[in-house]
Write a structure and sequence with these properties.
The structure holds two protein chains of two kinds.
Chain A (H helix, E strand, L loop, with lengths): L4 E4 L3 H10 L3 E4 L5 H6 L7 E4 L9 E4 L2 E5 L4 H5 L2 H6 L1 H7 L5 H6 L2 H7 L6 H7 L3 E4 L3 E3 H4 E3 L2 E2 L7 E7 L3 E8 L6 E9 L5 E6 L7 E2 L1 H9 L24 H18 L1
Parallel strand pairs in A: 1-3, 2-3
Antiparallel strand pairs in A: 4-5, 5-10, 6-7, 6-10, 8-9, 11-12, 12-13, 13-14
Chain B lengths: L14 H5 L15 E7 L5 E7 L1 H4 L4 E6 H6 L31 E2 L5 E7 L2 H10 L1 E6 L6 H4 L15 E8 L1 H9 L3 E12 L8 E7 L4 E6 L4 H10 L9 E4 L15 H13 L3 E4 L2 H7 L3 E12 L5 E13 L27 E9 L13 H19 L3 H8 L6 E2 L5 E2 L4 H11 L5 H10 L3 E10 L7 H6 L8 E7 L5 E5 L8 H13 L6 E4 L17 H28 L6 E4 L2 E4 L5 E3 H10 L12 E6 L8 E11 L4 E12 L6 H21 L29 E5 L17 H18 L10 H10 L2
Parallel strand pairs in B: 1-12, 10-11, 14-15, 20-21, 27-28
Antiparallel strand pairs in B: 1-5, 2-4, 2-6, 3-5, 7-15, 8-13, 9-10, 9-12, 13-14, 16-17, 18-26, 19-20, 19-25, 22-23, 23-24, 26-27
Chain lengths: 265, 781
Amino acid sequence: MYETQYHRASSVQDAVSRMEAAGEGKYVSGGMTLIPTMKQRLAAPSDLIDLRHIAEMQGISVNGRSVRIGAATTHDEVASAAALKAVCPAICHLAGHIGDPHVRHMGTIGGSIANNDPAADYPAAVLALGATIVTNRREIAADDFFTGLFETALEDSEIITAITFDAPAKAAYQKFANPASRYAMAGVFVAKRDNGEVRVAVTGAGANGVFRQMDMEAALAANWSPDALATVSVDATDLLSDLHADAAYRANLVKVMAKRAVAAA
Amino acid sequence: MGVEGIGARVARKEDKRFLTGKGRYTDDMSVPGMKYAVFVRSPHAHAKILKVDASAAKGMPGVIDVLDGKQILADGIGNLICGWMIHSKDGSPMKMGAWRPLAHETVRYVGDAVAIVVADSVAEARDAAEAVVVDYQELPVVIDASKAIEAGQPQLHPEAPNNLIFDWQIGDETATDKAIATAAHVTEVTIHNNRLSPNPMEPRAALGIYDAGDDHYTCYTTSQNPHVARLVMSAFYNVAPENKLRVIAPDVGGGFGSKIYIYPEEIVCLWASKRTGVPVKWTSDRTEAFLTDAHGRDHVSTVKMAFDASNRIIGLKVDTIANLGAYMSLFSSAVPTYLYATLLSGQYDIPAIHANVRTVYTNTAPVDAYRGAGRPEATYLLERTMETAARELGVSPAELRRVNFIRSFPHQTPVIMNYDAGDYEASLDAAMQAADWNGFAARKAEAANRGMKRGIGMSCYIEACGIAPSAAVGSLGAGVGLWESAEVRVNAVGTIEVLTGSHSHGQGHETTFAQLVADRFGVPLDSVNIVHGDTDKVQMGMGTYGSRSGAVGMSAVVKALDKVEAKAKKIAAHLMEADESDIVIENGELKVAGTDKSVPWFQMALAAYTAHNLPSGMEPGLKEGAFYDPANFTFPAGCYICEVEVDPDTGRTKIVQFVAADDFGNIINPMIVEGQVHGGIAQGIGQALLESVHYDASGQLLTASYMDYAMPRADDLPSFQVSTSNTPCPNNPLGIKGCGEAGAIGSPPALINAITDAIGNNALTMPATPQKVWAAAHAAK
């Protein structure tokens, strides 16, 4: 690791000020990707500005079916939040299967979404739930937020402060883990709203990161059952191919995980 | 056996320090003035070094010095060598290219060391290493061994045209060809044995200390065999003569073979310590370990197995290409020859065998012994072929094996080995019973109702352990003898130290070796200490590998104990005015049989050292040494059965049952043996299901971290059902065969046989990843 200056920000404004004063600063909110990358000398921020201890970014609130998760909330807190589990157990299940206990006690939802790792779990939930990403400057719809591999709509020094969404009528997440890293090789989050709208988001498989599978959405909107997906063909063209899984196999996994998610919802 | 003697389930003495974080590993060692080393490594798989410019790096903060390959050459440090000479079938010696500890002309794999930076801290050394400018001229690269021996491919070493190191054979080709020509059935298969990274928990490390006052070197290092390290560094690398070089291998966190060899780093740290005048410590990081620890396996073989009309094997012909990587590591030549092809008879009576083995240089990390070393390759090849043959012949896999088992001993195979004892059918029966083989059909049907494909597979393995008779291996090309030495030192108060040349790096020697003493003299285990891992303390040794510590190392202890016992009885007889033939040793006392006269063990020991009243002419003291050279290899064997369920939608394999029935000969500590079997099976399952080293076409290592190299984890493994049915080894005093490698040898074919049974497609290579299994299951439809 190269030398870096660590800052513990006390407020969102404090964090922004420190970032703007830094040479090559980087926000850290758990650092479960960033710190290993720095240890391998593949990233060298001059300053690390820690967002995890900012009070206004903590905690989960549920009002009726309206959910707000502070961006600095850890995966473990999401996994074990009873009020959230009552309205949207799928996101709790997802959070409880990220990484290992160490990761779940350090990593945060905001950090995960801002990083937008193409194999991370949270982006699938955020996209399928049609969530809103609240920042210190604006509100961004999930459909507009994820713009490519490790790319998002966030601007320089912009900070995610919360994720908000309305709890769906039904939802579930199923992933097939990479045998080595245990990241998703294909993870599918399905969500059905009270108005019948269905969203299906896929992580781990897309060459450009998380994406919505529109054919599945249409099929499931017409008939919410695993069998409805039998005739949907998943195009492998824009799927990832790597050491562990080629695009054709990932296409199969997307379909199998989608079916299992619908069955589990 | 007593509660602490031979056969007792004694908890491991060493675990207290390991489990409480009190172990002392090489990286824990710290000496005054010590500095830290980082190696500059080649980012290219093959390149000429045009220039090494360290001028900027030398001026960086904390940097003591930067040393390169030209300097180590100028100082007369020798090439790394392979210590086992193999001759090709045309009589020519193997073609060994030069391996410099620091490359000065050519780099041949990604990770090849080019320079060492010594600095006040690791961070400063790393910063400076990045500032060393190496001007490379890239050369074409070859990764695949089968391709590397074709004409027109990139050449690694001028000594080895077409990258061919040797073209060796064993057995009778004419007789084998004749058997194949007259066979009722010939099974033909191509067998791939995947390349593995050894992954000991503790990465390699070295601390080189040069004492200018005494012109003496000390090397702390992660070695399975510190005396061998000293011998090789003295005799071949010209680091220092043996009397001026002390090698200490303190606690070592796993080896699996990868810490047998002497690598560039320990040599360079010793040399750099003299050059810089400071002690120099290097500790590998995990990426360096993936890049530079010697890999294992990497064979491709074609096999023809010939059967007569009654399904008896009448001939076996094997053609193997073995990838040895960019350089010949210390025992690399022995692994695909005498540790592999000599086991190709397996548990079967095969009248004619011929194997041809070509070993090949490629632009990859060196390949050497990894848990099992050659024997897993032989077992996988044979047991996959047997399974394939059973399917082709339409007979049950158990029946085909039964028909062909060796049933009388000693048995001379056509490939050198003379099996001394065994009962293969007993292991097969025990495993089939434990696995409820006969109930499989019902379980398969039940799984099918759940949409799962259930399969079952077996593997009957044999291995040669207890390496090895020195004269025999010498005649086959080994550069060393493979005896072991021990010294038993009884202190004046009766406590006992056993100094052994075996080295424990997870095997539990501090417990099992002490059990021998407790058993012999009836003294408490706590009064016995095992001393190992230091060339200044332990007289001599050949180290721990090839499941040899029990069969060879303990046998040396037994010989030394015999001498101690004889002298102790003489002293006791003298003290009690009895005849020494009437003295028996029980429960820590030397007694005159049939009387109530006795002398406590400690009193006898005190008498040996006060020397006030010893038999006339007897030397004072009670300390005896012995060397033991085995009469033969030992032959552990067994039967493993694996049952799996494959999810046809995803290709994911779940191991639902794993049974191991082993014959290890006599057992000193059943709990430790079970632990060895569990660990070995876990590694074997790792090879079969998860692990594989991948390079891309340019020679970059794709699996350089745990993000891409899949290790077995607890949730990949079932609870193992292990049992033993033992035939004692007739060739060593304890009747021990060895158990360290069996699990890794026997398990991969059982697993692959089970998966291929489940999916109904025999075309599957290791590791059986979900993607491969899914594709193979779909191809079978």
